[in-house]
Amino acid sequence: MPPKTQRTPRREDSLSRDRIVEASIALLDNSGEAGLTFRALSERLATGPGALYWHIANKHDLLIAASDAVIAQAMDSCAAGETPQAAVRAIALALFDVMDAHPWVGSALARAPGQLPAVRIVERLGQQLRALGVPDDTQWTAVSALLSYILGVGGQNAANAQFARVQGVNRSDFLGELSNAWSQLDPAQYPFVRSVAEQFRTHDDRADFLAGIDLLLKGLAPRRSR
Amino acid sequence: MPPKTQRTPRREDSLSRDRIVEASIALLDNSGEAGLTFRALSERLATGPGALYWHIANKHDLLIAASDAVIAQAMDSCAAGETPQAAVRAIALALFDVMDAHPWVGSALARAPGQLPAVRIVERLGQQLRALGVPDDTQWTAVSALLSYILGVGGQNAANAQFARVQGVNRSDFLGELSNAWSQLDPAQYPFVRSVAEQFRTHDDRADFLAGIDLLLKGLAPRRSR
DNA sequence: ACCTGAACACCGTTCAAGT
DNA sequence: ACCTGAACACCGTTCAAGT
């Protein structure tokens, strides 16, 4: 009898790292980081909690893998951009949007610096900084500033979204409440915060985010030769 | 009999919000966010876990209170600065240093936007941006960019510190390991990351941080009148 | 008013035992 | 090689009962 040429295919519903990651993303999107539980996950995958550990090392590992799946897709699908500046803006906006759609990604990324998801972002940004003419010896500093800013904004937005979710109000009501609290602060101690409370109430996170990117890009632009 | 003029003083070792916060900071400094536990805390304070809930609402509340104590002190003690730019730098560096000394602060702050600790920072930065001549209607955007950047860097550093702690290596060994991993990435896919791996190995977090602040300040500087 | 500490309803992770 | 599920060692939070 010849060796079997028909490979026994995996049971279609058998576990795999990818299926676990996919189910994790669904749980995270549904109910935030608190919703990602080995018990909830194993129930959704019709298995036991122990089975998951055959495919992933631990929860931190799982969170990074979920972030990476989401970030990789965002980086692959973002527009090219006519100039390096436009390309950086496109990358940044793609990241903003993905962190907005999956609020858990921001805080997960913040806890995994230097890991694969961050490396993908650094690569994309770095190539554009090169094209922009940032000198070799300041490229790390430049990309690091952009990355920190992007992750910082993502983290804040994630926290705002989660806060609003827990309190059961929508995002703009939540901003409104914060704005009210700010305008009732002691005028002697917090004059500035009071004065921007109104701006804060109606501000646009996405526009503010892009304004910060432009500030950084302006600082990075090559000096005009004369 | 006249009313007692001697107020019965609190038992010196009785619980209070301040004492709980103080003990929390010690636990957090010792063993990170995982070390802050109601059981560990109540043991250190020689009481039961339930007693703590008389003084604080929950763990999130406690973490914000601990951050606020640490941030308030940093904001009070930071130098004045001769120019608005110098003052912003001084504020930023004070925050960098306090997040470096207490690595849990960065991630705690990232999860509490708009709360008191962040408000303190916004006030301090905002006053300087006014002095810098940033127009009223862009002051929120400007302060928000600075804050996001500062918290972003703080979060990254916190994660690096915690990573190194868990792995039991020191920080620079940890950066070295990451740098090695980066230089072994696929050259076709990650040319930029490979090229900055050496810069990354020897980079100075504090200097990089300040460089980012300067980039933002440069973008915010008033155009030179001619 | 403030504290006690057992109890509740969860966690992540491990591991002997199965197939 | 991969999966099962009970068990372990924890959590944050609550609450009747005390003082």
Describe, in plain words, how this protein is organized in 3D:
Two copies of one chain form a homodimer. Chain A has 226 residues and is mainly α. Chain A is built from eleven helices and no strands. Chain A has helices at 17-35, 38-44, 49-52, 59-76, 84-101, 104-110, 116-132, 139-167, 171-183, 191-202, 205-220. In chain A, helix 4 runs parallel beside helix 7, helix 5 packs parallel to helix 8 and helix 8 crosses helix 9. The first copy, chain A, is flat. The interface between A and B is large, with 59 and 59 residues. Chain A binds a DNA duplex (19 and 19 nucleotides) through residues 14-15, 37-39, 47-51, 53-55, 58-59.
Determine the most extensive contact between two protein chains: A-B, 59 and 59 residues
Q: Give a count of the beta strands of chain A, DSSP E runs of length 2 or more.
A: 0
Distance between the termini of chain A: 81 Å
Return the string of H and E elements of chain A: HHHHHHHHHHH
- Which bin fits the share of residues in helices of chain A? over 70%
Shape of chain A: flat
Number of helices of chain A: 11
